[in-house]
């Protein structure tokens, strides 16, 4: 099950479960601006591409809540 991480790993922008966000196959999570901008569609951690993060239906968030653990890339992100 996806963790639905709560923030962009580059800029630390809040990304609630219903927000537009992008993930790689390891669930590194980025806001649209960072994913398309500085990262040019390439994950700085694994070198993979991004897919749009799915939205978990609101009625399932109580039973399967999103993660509250914030992940932040030390030093921010640089172009790959």
Work out the count of structural domains: 1
Which sequence of strands runs across the widest sheet?
2-1-3
Number of strands: 3
What is the average of the pLDDT values? Answer: 94
Named at the architecture level, the CATH assignment is: 2-Layer Sandwich
What CATH calls the topology is Herpes Virus-1
Shape: globular
Q: Radius of gyration over alpha carbons?
A: 12 Å
Q: Strand portion, in percent?
A: 5-15%
Q: Unreliable runs, pLDDT <50, ≥5 residues?
A: none
Estimate percent helicity. Answer: 10-25%
Protein name: DUF1272 domain-containing protein
Pfam families: DUF1272
Topology:
Layout: E1 22-23, E2 29-30, H1 32-36, E3 51-52, H2 58-61
Antiparallel strand pairs: 1-2, 1-3
